Amino acid sequence: MNPEKQKILIVDDSEMNRAILADMLEDQYDLVEAENGAEAIAILQQQVEEIALMLLDIVMPEMNGFEVLACMQKHHWNENLAVIMISSDASPANMKQAYDLGAFDYIGRPFDPSVVLHRVSNTMLLYAKQRRLEHIVAAQLYEQAKDSQLMISILSHVVEFRNGESGSHVLHIHAITELLLSQLMEKTDRYPLSKTEVARICTASSLHDIGKLSIPDEILNKPGRLTAEEFKVMKSHSMAGADLLRQLSAVQQEDPLVKTAYEICRWHHERYDGGGYPDGLKGEEIPISAQVVSLADVYDALTSERCYKKAFPHEKAMEMILGGQCGAFNPLLLECLQELSPTLERELKAATLSTYKPPKFQDMEEQLHDLELFSSERTAAMLTCEQQKYQFLAEANSNLVFTYTTSPSIITWNAAGVETLATEELVVDPEKDEAFLQRFGKENFSRLLQKVEQASPGQPFIRMDVDLPYRTGQRKYHCFAKTIWSADEPKEILSLVGELVPLDEERLNQSKTALIQHAVRACAPDRDLDHFAVTGVEAWGLTQYLSLMFDRMRLVKGDPLECVRYDSQGQCSPDPEGTAGLWLQEPLEEDCLSAKVLSNRCKYTKFSVMDERSYHILAFYVEVDDWPCCLELMTDVSERSLFGADGKQNLVQTLTQYNQKLYTDVLTGAYNRRYYEEQMRDVEDHQALAVLDLDRFKSINDNFGHQVGDIALQEYAKTVRSSIRKTDCFIRYGGDEYVVIFRDIPLESFVNKLEELRGRIYDLKLPGYPEIQLSASIGGVYGFGKTVDMFRCADTLAYEAKEERNKVIVRSISEVLRAEEAWKERLL
Amino acid sequence: MTIQECYEALGGDYEEVIGRLMREKMVQKFLLKFLNDKSYDLLVESIEADNAEEAFRAAHTIKGVCQNLSFTKLYQSSELITEMLRAGDTAGAYAFLDNVTEDYEQTVKAIRALQASLPEEAQ
In this predicted model, what pLDDT tens digit does every residue of A552-565 receive, in sequence order? Predict the structure, then answer.
């Protein structure tokens, strides 16, 4: 059997008829024969994946053709397998019944071999094309959904960051909302929500508290009771969130996700009895989305620690909610919550471990498929199936879809392509068509052809970014295409199917601008956001802050163009990193982004593709100490999509997600030695590292026993963990020796932080053992180096500190290395 | 005997079949195959056993084969009996069966004559 040949199943009770068909087809296809319907079904059950097409007779013993079709429909087999009916009864009633049951084509007897051959090969080609297009369109929908989830997670992260909430609040809300909704859907059909709508509510749930951005810090993070006045301000956050969404452009407000988010923001503090705020809605006046998120919010608030309260255990929280102490809810939802109760705690823990859930590709493909089937079933009998199916997929697509065949050289466009490019639907010899080349861009087209030449059957995909005319200006598109290769050797390119997707800068920019504004407000309050000037010290603060939010950042000073950085004293010095690494692709030259920003004093953005990855760069104008500068912020769109929204921290989390347990020290909850060896040892971009050594720990073990020693270690670890930032990495290196790796920390803060740690450890009292005095000797190094080198140096310093105990020694890594060299020299 | 002469003898349309199947070799192959087709025997047995359903399918198959091979004469009688059987009229079909048999035997006789005139390896 030839694996390259496609397989056709011939079903006919007459051997003669099968032989005639077989004779026509056996040269080009692998054939399987069945002499009645039942046998056909048996064959399909075993090999439906392999069979590309079925020729089906109607009148047969055992099971007739219609019964076979009905059975296939039940199993959804005809989604990937085309059925052509062959019969001498070409009555309209028969044909209609066949089409209704999902047949693709109908051939009457007597048939002409060449017609049969053509119809068979066309049908197979179309089915293959359709599957490819479905895949492409689904991939694109998937990307878009992923993008918006990404932006939402960035935004909600900002909110959390500010609220000082535990990093998992948004994840919890998302998870509880999802659980409640699926329970609700199982229970009742009172709220007819589709799968898509449920997913949308879950996504939008992350945004429920965006209004808190407008609440002053003193109130938001006030421990203890709020005054009546303060509470009033606090309560304004739900309306503020809704207003924030109201300020989006009219088009964006039409987006179903924004609409859902609006409901949730505005009404997640309403009560089912009408006693909530801001509108006092009652019962089912409150949209179900807001009802569910409201309950999820209350549950998570109760079971988490906040600045004004401790965490309640699950049982207590359930008791309080069901007892009506925390608001009035839809009784149906309370029932759902009760039903979820036994597993809720465990499910939430699982949800927190996986921080970023991309939408399910499978689901998208299914939805798309349903949509497609729905529209095709109705009209299949009226329209030529071929055209209809291709057209549906291409024309329903607002992106630019094209197919290009090499010989003859023809490029065809869907409606969106025709409109955007003002081109003909079908362009013959596009490489010579001046009008077309002018619209599409001569250079773009030759680049595309070049990429086609570089493609191979193993690497059939083409990705490139192109600028195309859009309205009066230009717009950047990402081109994603696949080359289709011949089945026979030698492999040849038959055609190229592709799609051009506009890179929606507006959406990316908006969320980024929100981040920047937040940073600016934090570092230089009361400043004009559109055109603002800062001092050198403020510039330092701002860049520190922004570097936590963006992958790469550089500050470019004008006249001449130069990358600089400011230190905590406001002193300016050259920044070699601004022209290294990824920035190599963005050299500072006459017409670079920074030059444009500096000359026009405004904001610019661009997409850049390096090594198959997409980067988004946002550049804006800022004056530092009255000197014109441009701040460029780079985000790795692909990396963020893969590893979640908040960058490096999540990268590590993702890497260790499955190994969480392997990497955690059981006693102290810190990372363990294994984590250090596997994940940290060879990392190079740390800025500061400290080794902490507990003084006289052995004597605690000896005098009070190991149990007390363990308690001491636990308390000690707890103290350290609570003193460092979430982004810092705390590792139990061994016994009583701990390592803390600090990311992006200025020297001054580093020194202060270590002093603070020393102080807090010294102040630590073990419950029941007031006579034990703990202290730590701490060695810290800063500067850039490999973790393993930095560790060695810090360890030396900690050893040095141990001579005095309860002491901190900090040096730069180069200083320690120099001393080491000198010491080695002396030894020789 | 040529294939064209065979078609004249069995009352078929040679022009039509050669227009569709293109090659004489192929037509000849299917003509010979027809001799092994059991549909006619099944038709007779089923009508005698008063099994209308089975008889209908057999007649329908004969009709389909005749269409493919352009056996005009046998096609006409098999179509008539197919329609009778489709309507469940076994008595009518029983009465009409002789006509089908006559046409069938004429067809088989012509093909056998063709077969006999072929060189041995082709038989």
Answer: 889 999 888 899 99
Mutate to test the interface with A, among B13, B14, B16, B20 (most CBs of A within 10 A): B20
CA pair distance B21, B24, nearest whole angstrom: 8
In whole angstroms, what is the distance from residue A278 CA to residue A263 CA?
12
Whether B30 and A61 lie within 8 Å, measured CB to CB: no
Question: CB A109 to CB B54 under 8 A?
Answer: no
Give the chain A residue nearest B65 (alpha carbons).
A17
Which one of B31, B41, B46, B68 would you mutate to disrupt binding with A, by most A Cβ within 10 Å of its Cβ?
B68
Question: For B71-101, what is each residue's pLDDT tens digit?
Answer: 999 999 999 999 999 888 888 888 899 999 9
- The 10 Å Cβ neighbour count of residue A621 is 22
Superfamily of domain A164-359 in CATH is Hypothetical protein af1432 (1.10.3210.10)
Find out whether B75 and B104 touch, Cβ atoms under 8 Å.
no
What's the pLDDT tens digit per position in A667-720? 777 887 777 776 677 777 667 899 999 888 888 888 888 888 888 888 888 889
Dist CA A448 CA A445 (whole Å):
5
Residue B66 has pLDDT above 60, yes or no: yes
Considering only CB atoms, which chain A residues are within 8 Å of B26?
23
Could you report the predicted ipTM of this complex, rounded to two decimals?
Answer: 0.72
Least confident interval from A212-216, A391-395, A409-413, B41-45: A391-395
- Tokens for A798? 């900690």
Q: How far apart are CA B17 and CA A273, in angstroms?
A: 83
- Please give the share of chain A, as a percent, with pLDDT higher than 70: 77
Does A19 contact B at CB distance below 8 Å? Answer: yes
Class for the domain spanning A397-503: alpha beta
Q: How far are the Cα atoms of A37, A279, A751, A783 from residue A808, in angstroms, in the given order? A: 85, 57, 8, 17
- CATH node for A506-643: 3.30.450
Taking CB atoms and an 8 Å limit, are A59 and B61 in contact across chains? yes
Query: Are A111 and B70 within 8 A, CB to CB?
Result: no
Q: What's the start-to-end Cα distance of chain B, in Å?
A: 13
Q: Which CATH architecture has domain A7-133?
A: 3-Layer(aba) Sandwich (3.40)
| Chain B touched by A109 (CB under 8 Å) | yes
- Specify whether the CB–CB gap between A281 and A266 falls below 8 A: no
The CATH H-level superfamily of A659-827 is Reverse transcriptase/Diguanylate cyclase domain (3.30.70.270)
Q: Phi and psi dihedrals of A201, rounded to 5?
A: -60, -40
Domain locations in chain A? 7-133, 164-359, 397-503, 506-643, 659-827
- Identify the H or E element spanning A175: helix A169-187
Please indicate whether, in this complex, the C-beta atoms of B33 and A19 are within 8 angstroms of each other.
Answer: yes
Interchain proximity A17–B65, CB inside 8 Å: yes
Contact A116, A24 (CB under 8 A): yes
Question: What end-to-end distance do the CA atoms of chain A give, in Å?
Answer: 75
> CB–CB of A113 and B20 under 8 A?
yes
What architecture (CATH level 2) is domain B3-117? Up-down Bundle (1.20)
Q: Which residues of A touch B30 (CB under 8 A)?
A: 16, 19-20
Chain A CB within 8 Å of residue B22 CB = yes
Q: Shortest CB distance from B34 goes to which of A16, A110, A113?
A: A16
Min mean pLDDT across A187-191, A256-260, A542-546 is at A542-546
What residues of chain B lie within 8 A of the CB of A14, using their CB?
A: 37, 39, 61, 64-65
Question: Which of B22, B26, B60 lies closest to A59 in CB terms?
Answer: B60
Order of strands across the sheet that contains A105-108: A30-34, A7-11, A51-57, A82-87, A105-108
Which of A140-154, A532-546, B19-33, B36-50 tops mean pLDDT? B36-50
Instruction: Give the integer Cα–Cα distance in Å for A10 and A349.
Output: 54
Question: Both tokens of residue A146?
Answer: 């992923």
